[in-house]
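Incident review: delayed structure delivery

Summary: a single-chain prediction request sat in the queue longer than the usual turnaround. Root cause was a stuck worker, restarted by the on-call engineer. No data loss occurred. The affected request and its eventual output are reproduced below so the record is complete for anyone auditing the incident later.

Affected input:
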Amino acid sequence: MCDAGRAIILAQDPERDVEIEEFKRLIEIAGRAGLRGLNYSFTVLSNQRTPDTAGRGGTSQSSFNLALHDNTKLSPAGRVTRDEVFARMKYFLERVIPTAEKWKVCLCLCLCLCLCLCLCLCLCLCLCLCLCLFLLIARAHSHTHTLGLDSVTARARAHTRARLPTHLDSVAGSAGVPPRRPASPNPQRSGALGLSCGTEPPRDLRYQLRSYGRGSH
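Output delivered after worker restart:
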């Protein structure tokens, strides 16, 4: 609440009721404009300042210097007890809350707003940290799983390569064809079956293998 509402905070009648009516009018204007929230403050002790200091270009700056501040001097509010502050706030809220409810406008104290913003920022930070940790764990798990698949694939390929010549010999024997000859020390070219056999299998072997494959289907 700005300096125009000091009569409300200091409980100065009848000016207090006049300022409350003005505040209610502002709530109505905000509701008609579609605003759904207004922020206010209720501090008995206003902002403390010492004499202004000169700035660049001939400007004056609002300042506070603790060495120049007279802390023994009371503010215009005088001495106010805790109960008096809450009584003044209750007097104010009991008269403005019905207007705020009528126009569907939320009233938020400055302290509550700051706390809400801090909580939201902390929550967002925690969510970001959790997401980063989850991504790191997922990436490490995926890398380990990939290495495991690679090792399994490599073992399967080695096993297949080791058993393939024996399997071809068994197929040729069942077709009535003599088993293939072992590879020569100096292979000339790849065999017709895509194996490094050194010498190409005879034509009758290839013909028998193709006939056997068609017959098996």
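Verification: The chain has a mean pLDDT of 74.
Action items: add queue-age alerting; document worker restart procedure.
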